[in-house]
User: Fold these one by one.
Assistant:
Number 1:
Amino acid sequence: QVQLVESGGGLVQSGGSLRLSCAASGSIFSINVMGWYRQAPGKQRELVARITSGGTTNFADSVKGRFTISRDNAKNAVYLQMNSLKPEDTAVYYCNAGIGVGIYEYSYWGQGTQVTVSS
């Protein structure tokens, strides 16, 4: 059984910062891409940022220059540092990881953590 557990969400004023953390646990053989997605009310879930096992990163245009993503492979963890937050960043943020279990790879999701940015 593999689980992704997120932490670090909350309420912050516009211009503030938050750091999200996500740790994977369970029967993990390997972890490929790890990333963060978000879903605002009435909108589709969208990619925020992702990072490969080798450290290659991709960001949504809306967060470039404000958010950074990093991972600690030894801890099976991924982090999202969010700076200069805007009200439009308000959403539920989900951690995602492509995890090898035996000879197969599966996509796992965390339970989500609320980020609210007040104006």
Number 2:
Amino acid sequence: QVQLVESGGGLVQPGGSLRLSCAASGFSVDMYYIGWFRQAPGKEREGVSCISSSNGSTYYADSVKGRFTISKDIAKNTVYLQMNSLKPEDTAVYYCATPGCFDEYDYYGQGTQVTVNY
């Protein structure tokens, strides 16, 4: 049974950093592409980043390029999203999902809230 559990969200000031974690079970994170997307109230879902299954290639939305970094630890079966230089417009619930990249995903977790504000 595929399960994804996100954690690491919270309240941070603009310019701050957070690292989100996505613990996977029921499959190995090196089997499929895994992505992050976010959803803010009243806005459409937005793909943020994804990492490939094979060579670890990474992809980013223009809105986060240069600020966010996706990575994975196969031994821990966990995918991370390091978020730096956070802006108020990054405020959203963040979800990790699989399979695919900037796709309509079949599986995603319960999400973790990220709030960027003073």
Number 3:
Amino acid sequence: QVQLVESGGGLVQAGDSLRLSCAASGRIFSNYAMGWFRQAPGKEREFVAGIKWGFGTTTYGDPVKGRFTISRDSAKNMVFLQMNSLKPEDTAIYYCAAGEAGGAYKHWGQGTQVTVSS
């Protein structure tokens, strides 16, 4: 069983940067993918970024391309989301997720709040 714990959220101003971390306990297999999702009040959950654990291949949602960067530390079983040039519309609860690449994300963290003021 994989357990995920996010950290690093907070209140920042527009234009600031923030780095989220996700610590994974349990075995992360090379065929796994790790991802970040977000959900703002009254909106559906949205894909933010994903990374394939084995090759490190990354994908991004259109709203964050060029501003956010996902990375991993395989030795520490951690995934990071570097968020630059934050905008008020980035305000949401950010969730870390894991699952087999190409399949559904089966494991989810509890989320961390990110609030960007204008």
Number 4:
Amino acid sequence: QVQLVESGGGLVQAGGSLRLSCAASGTLSRINTMGWYRRAPGEERELVATISSGGGTNYADSVKGRFTISRDNAKSTVYLQMNSLRPEDTAVYYCNVYAPFISRTYWGQGTQVTVSS
């Protein structure tokens, strides 16, 4: 089994920065895509950013230029550096890992990010 543990959420003023981390434990395929999703109050969960095991990245248009996703394969950890935060970035952020060879998707428990205006 794979478990994902997120950290780094909190309260920040608009324009500030936060860094989220997500560590995966258990048996995880080397070939996988790690990412971050978020769900704002009353909204559907949406993709924020993903990064493949080869380093390829994908971002939602709303965060391009402000957020940076990265990973440390040796630590099975994915990071999300969030700069120039806006009140509309307020949401619960979820870590996600997709292992394509076994078609399994894993989710973290979520971490709250609140941006005050």
